[in-house]
Write a structure and sequence with these properties.
Length: 310
Amino acid sequence: QAVKNTGTGDGLSAYNAGGIKVITGHAHFINPWTISVGGKRYKAHHFLIATGTHDLVPLIPGLKETGYIGYRQALDLEELPKKLCVIGGGAIGSEFTHYFSTFGTEVHLVEFAERLMTREDVEMGELLEAIFEHNGVKVHTGSKVVKVEKKGNQKVVTFEHLGKMHTITVDEILLSVGKLPNTDLGLENAGVEYDSKHGIVVNGMMQTSNPHIYAAGDVVGGYMFTHVASYQSRIVGHNLFSSLKHVADYRAVPRCVFVDPEFASTGATEEELKSRGIKYQSAIISTAIIGRANTSQEDTGFVKILADRK
């Protein structure tokens, strides 16, 4: 119902009403000006590639044979698993760990890095791990999944931590270790530069290496958020039809992880500032000092600010 209320559940009728012709099928560039879809060829003066990503599936012995779900399939489950192993402690893995544990599933979260949320400041990952552990989630950081096996109706996950092997027997495995761009489009025929891991190369105006072909959204890598894809698409829409070009500005991209409490940030992380050699000062304070947080009994969290010397 929530999706229906937004109108996105019936996108085809909205396109038709707007006079936009929808062609379904796999598109493949024949040359820089022509694509092939379902055996038919279509020519255009400009193209926008917005093909998104697909889930990265690591080469873990037994994983494919045993079976797993991604976050998209997790949304369609008709009953909750009693025990769940989430592989990957980034934003999506952390969010689904929160969702399932809230509904009473026993969750084991396995992350290869030494902390959760490696793309954010250290304090975020450390606090999130503490919150998960407090809520009964078993967090295994610094751990590498080495194999998966089927055992009746259950699945056995074996992982290595500090040189020792450990096993978890669960009902389901949720895989969340990253995304790969959908670039199987004959981009070589169109003269479009891309990387199979990081996506299509674009400039600030969202043009590819072939100026009449644009790309936007997750397929260009970088910040893989819906609001960034929307922002990039608006830039493309403007630049396609205007001589005064707009350039993307990513200096203050908001990011949010939907756990409880929610984690939100914007701008550069401390690690990024250090790697770029930028001098900065920082301040951090607990939200527990705020009266409202105490009266609402929501005093878990902190505010951290990174600023230049001015």
